[in-house]
Request: fold
Amino acid sequence: MKCPFCSNGDTQVVETRVAEDGDFIRRRRQCAACEKRFTTYERPDVNFPRVVKKDGRRIEYERAKLLASMNLALRKRPVSTEQIDSAVERIEEKLLNLGVREIPSTRIGELVMRELKKLDKVAYVRFASVYRSFEDIDEFRALVDEVRR
Reply:
């Protein structure tokens, strides 16, 4: 494993932990050259369903896109990286358990909203307002009222 800081190929595993649910292994590594530490995750290589976009295009599922959209909604919110990673893991588990070869992007959006609602109400409202393309303030107000209940 190359060091992400200095690109040295000589790194050593300092600590290994299995996630609580056993779905991945977290490894802390240290570079032999610059001595900086970094984390890697080991996950099984699985086939996620292809994502069907609103315009009909079919694309490969990308964890990075899911994570980026959640991070954007959670920007400057008091939610830890571990909580976000756990939410992404739950979404991916649901995608795999569906047992389908293709899934509409709207279904993934609904799964994200469900997880954000549990994590942080403000992030949920942020994501939903963009995801649902609100046309006026009344739609936004209805969503906020729903969250308050």
Observations:
- The chain has five helices and six strands.
- Residues 46-148 form one domain.
- Strands lie at 11-18, 25-31, 37-42, 50-52, 58-59, 102-104.
